[in-house]
């Protein structure tokens, strides 16, 4: 056991020393104080706590509200901020991002007081990504990270989603829900072979508390982490799916296109649903399966050792 612990410690240190060159497809920090390309022409107000994020005026005017720090140009816009948008907030999960040591000043926030229907989304047709177009990918592996703090908890709140329908037999389902479902952290998605996969935690989250949630698919296993603790895991090979890459979905509507990624809402039956009332920060999407040492809110080496020991314990239980 001592040798095992020493090995895990060595592995953790080596892993931290060389962060893998994973592809970040989109990274929304909501921390755009020094980002001059944010379009504040409508409000005339600077990027600052208490001011609204720019909105898109439906699908008539594109306004860049959130910068994509991946460099791919998958910027976000928000939907009619007066009733469906967000404000910047200086309430953040941490003053610095542990993985990068970059200062973290702002998140985005929406409450029921501000309106009924928060929504933000990609819109590649208008933003014209210069790199990887997030709306077109069907990743065989992926990692989704986000920090969130809920003001209210109802049946379903989708922190990150993907628009579309007809991805499985139940045509109303969208391709992706990275969410709090009935109080529990959850990730659900459809694959390109029309199989449905889900991983969920056991314990409920509470209002007024920041959480850092991560979903990881390596093509075989779907894992869900909350604050660096593995809380749910699913063997996707047991489904019999020949290809577990994430589905794109089909269809379109007056306020959505298949493949669009959303922050703060989900989709069901071609309609906007699952609103998030509260704060969202540090949303990053990668097209590979990251290790815990590569998460934005990277755990301490000792925590990685505990995660490793916990995984060994799960393996032992399964073998027995």
Q: What would your notes on this structure say?
A:
The chain is an alpha+beta fold. Helices cover 13% and strands 29% of the residues. It is built from four helices and 19 strands. Strands 1, 3, 4, 6, 11, 12, 13 and 19 form an eight-stranded antiparallel beta sheet that branches. Helix 1 crosses helix 4. It is globular and about 55 Å long. The model is unreliable at 4-21, 302-307 and 309-320 (pLDDT under 50).
Primary descriptors:
eight-stranded antiparallel sheet; 19 strands; Jelly Rolls; globular; alpha+beta
Entry summary:
With 320 residues, this protein is of the alpha+beta class.
What secondary-structure arrangement, pairings included, does this model have?
Blueprint: H1 2-17, E1 24-28, E2 76-78, H2 81-84, E3 87-89, E4 107-110, E5 120-122, H3 124-127, E6 142-150, E7 156-162, E8 176-181, E9 184-190, E10 196-200, E11 211-217, E12 221-226, E13 229-235, E14 252-253, E15 256-257, E16 261-263, E17 266-268, E18 271-273, E19 278-286, H4 301-319
Antiparallel strand pairs: 1-19, 2-5, 3-4, 4-19, 5-16, 6-11, 6-19, 7-8, 7-16, 8-9, 9-10, 11-12, 12-13, 14-15, 17-18
Helix pairs in contact: 1-4
Q: Strand content of the residues, in percent?
A: 25-35%
Elements, N to C (H/E) = HEEHEEEHEEEEEEEEEEEEEEH
**Secondary structure: number of strands:** 19
**What is the CATH C level class, in words?**
Mainly Beta
Mean pLDDT: 88
Q: How many domain regions?
A: 1
